[in-house]
């Protein structure tokens, strides 16, 4: 018989001890022996909270599950695991976490049947799937398999639990180094603001705040006048001389490139812009002043280029430090006399973040202006500032070679740059999004910030992931309920006009198929009856929106259409007051009807599948699969899809 990989129990040190006692220092969240209240790390500003109850679970299962969830939800409190975790994706941990309640029952059943997890065989595994009466679906089966892998890879003892920066220090880095770890964990864990991003932001803002003073002294040297020493306040609050005349003469041109890099880094960090959006910021008149509650704020112009035939102008509401960075960079381009001879092809305008200025290269140098180079420029300026204690130390890798390098008086610059833990663009955007959306009225501010972007661009930042169902998700939906209601009303207005024209023409309205399509017809009929008794201006939809808004409360728009969420009717497994789109079953669920305004995409897909079924050059299996998928669309959407003869 084949033994599934549940070969040993964990010998962790969690048993009977709260995590705070184990670490010897306070940690965020509540980690009692039988109940864990896992909230976001104090630096990630996450509103997601998870409550895990281990009461009634056998001790050997409890310890293994605790180690697993430390690894899943607290990567900075990492355990020492074996290389069997190499290459595993975060979604595997999320699968186990989501199906914890069923997993504990399944593991207990297997333990009772086999006597111990180490003795579980393939026969026991098949009996659990077919004869246990538990009815595990494929998700619970996947959760059990994932736990089997992690249970085998768990450490025999928790011998290393410390607060350290995430990139490159976990045993997971064996799967390709620090860069691979960042890419793998990026979808689930933002940067730690205090440990990693905070020192970089402090250094970048320091260079931006003193940018005008540096340019003043550079212009003085160009006029053959003596440059005054630049006084700054160090990390201890003491006033010290950062640069004297000799310092300006020796590193003046290099320092300008570092200031330009800091301007780009600060702008990217506080706006969440992508590299393509940063390239599309125009050089002339990039800022626009507005008045918000008596305070002057700034809008930064850019252009949305990706996926559009004609670029669309964006306006980003930016904090004052970004306005300062833009002002410093505009002046720097004038001081260096960099001609705007390179136009951004999509917009036909000269870019603000000129590649030559950011890179500190000679005029005409053909280089790629990317955020990585800007961060490298900031790091070059930071080496001397960190050594002299003017700014806090930058995060570095945790290894003996790094410690030896930092112990030397003047480490080599290339070696010093190689040991730094540097943020990348995606980490900056995700951290920015999490911080903004967790503040009071943050979701509204976040949606306002990204409203000019494509939905797929903004959705990754502020839409709650289906696997993050918790009280925090319900609170988030309550915060944005009014915004969501406006979106639903916008969709209902267009669809109501289609329905009304069909009724007036005497044609049966092509309304959504599905189990609950009648509810939608009833809504439109009730609104139409009220409007028919009132004088009406065809071009004015204000009264129509008022009537539709009465029915729009509580309705969600998903990929498949309306969802008037009712937990008693939901088939998606959601119990927290909002649907889980990833598990949506619109052809069966009584909460759902299909929006006719989105039928075009389904029609195109259906036509493509039918063409595949007629293509005799395709393998028979592929044609059969295409036919099954086309039939599924026909079943879900009914007569809304125009079915051509096969």
UniProtKB/TrEMBL annotation:
One of its GO terms (molecular function) is DNA binding. InterPro entries: DNA_brk_join_enz. It comes from the Bacteria. SUPFAM superfamilies: DNA breaking-rejoining enzymes. This is Uncharacterized protein. It comes from Blastococcus saxobsidens. The lineage of its organism: Bacteria, Bacillati, Actinomycetota, Actinomycetes, Geodermatophilales.
């Amino acid at each position: 018989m084949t033994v599934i990989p549940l070969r040993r129990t964990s010998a962790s040190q969690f048993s009977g001890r709260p995590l705070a006692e184990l670490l010897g220092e306070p940690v965020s969240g509540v980690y009692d022996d039988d109940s864990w209240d896992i909230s976001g790390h104090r630096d990630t500003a996450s509103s997601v909270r998870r409550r895990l109850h281990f009461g009634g679970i056998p001790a050997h299962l409890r310890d293994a599950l605790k180690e697993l969830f430390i690894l899943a939800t607290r990567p900075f409190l990492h355990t020492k695991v074996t290389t069997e975790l190499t290459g595993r994706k975060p979604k595997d941990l999320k699968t186990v976490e989501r199906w914890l309640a069923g997993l504990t029952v399944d593991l207990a059943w297997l333990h009772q049947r086999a006597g111990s997890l180490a003795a579980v065989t393939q026969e026991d595994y098949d009996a659990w799937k077919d004869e246990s009466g538990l009815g595990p679906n494929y998700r619970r089966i996947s959760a059990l398999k994932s736990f089997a892998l992690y249970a085998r890879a768990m450490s025999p003892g928790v011998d290393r639990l410390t607060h350290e920066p995430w990139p490159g220090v976990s045993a997971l880095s064996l799967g390709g180094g620090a860069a691979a770890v960042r890419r793998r964990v990026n979808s689930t864990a933002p940067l730690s603001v205090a440990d990693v991003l905070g020192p970089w932001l402090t250094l970048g803002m320091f260079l931006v705040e003193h940018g005008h003073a540096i340019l003043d002294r550079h212009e003085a040297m160009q006029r053959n006048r003596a440059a005054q020493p630049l006084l700054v306040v160090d990390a201890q609050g003491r006033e010290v001389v950062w640069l004297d005349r000799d310092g300006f003469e020796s590193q003046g041109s290099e320092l300008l490139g570092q200031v330009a890099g800091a301007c780009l880094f600060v702008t990217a960090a506080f706006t969440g812009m992508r590299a393509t959006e940063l390239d599309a910021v125009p050089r002339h008149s990039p800022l626009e002043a507005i008045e918000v509650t008596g305070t002057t704020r700034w809008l930064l112009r850019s252009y949305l280029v990706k996926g559009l035939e004609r670029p669309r102008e964006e306006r980003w509401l930016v904090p004052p430090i970004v306005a300062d960075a833009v002002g410093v960079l505009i002046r720097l381009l004038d001081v260096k006399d960099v001609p705007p001879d390179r136009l951004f092809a999509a917009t036909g305008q000269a870019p603000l973040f000129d590649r030559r200025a950011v890179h500190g290269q000679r005029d005409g140098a053909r280089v790629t202006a990317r955020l990585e180079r800007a961060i490298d420029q900031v790091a070059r300026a930071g080496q001397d500032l960190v050594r002299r204690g003017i700014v806090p130390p930058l995060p570095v890798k945790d290894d003996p070679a790094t410690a030896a390098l930092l112990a030397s008086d003047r480490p080599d610059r290339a070696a010093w740059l190689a040991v730094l833990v540097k943020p990348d663009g995606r980490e900056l955007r995700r951290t920015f999004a999490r911080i903004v959306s967790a503040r009071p009225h943050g979701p509204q501010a976040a949606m306002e910030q990204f409203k000019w972007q494509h939905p797929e661009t903004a959705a990754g930042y502020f839409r709650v992931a289906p696997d993050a169902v918790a009280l925090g998700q319900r609170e988030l939906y309550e915060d944005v309920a009014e915004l969501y209601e406006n979106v639903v009303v916008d969709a209902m207005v267009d669809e109501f006009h289609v329905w009304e024209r069909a009724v007036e023409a005497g044609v049966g309205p092509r309304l959504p198929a599905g189990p609950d399509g009648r509810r939608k017809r009833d809504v439109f009929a009730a609104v139409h009856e009220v409007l028919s008794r009132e004088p009406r201006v065809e071009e004015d939809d204000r009264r129509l929106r008022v009537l539709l808004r009465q029915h729009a409360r509580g309705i969600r728009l998903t990929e498949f259409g309306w969802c008037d969420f009712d937990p008693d009717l939901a088939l998606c497994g959601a119990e927290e007051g909002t649907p889980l789109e990833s598990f949506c079953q619109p052809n069966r669920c009584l909460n759902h009807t299909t929006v006719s305004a989105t039928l075009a995409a389904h029609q195109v897909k259906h036509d493509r599948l039918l063409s595949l079924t007629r293509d005799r050059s395709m393998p028979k299996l592929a044609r059969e699969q295409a036919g099954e998928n086309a039939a599924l669309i026909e079943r879900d959407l009914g007569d809304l899809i125009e079915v051509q003869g096969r």
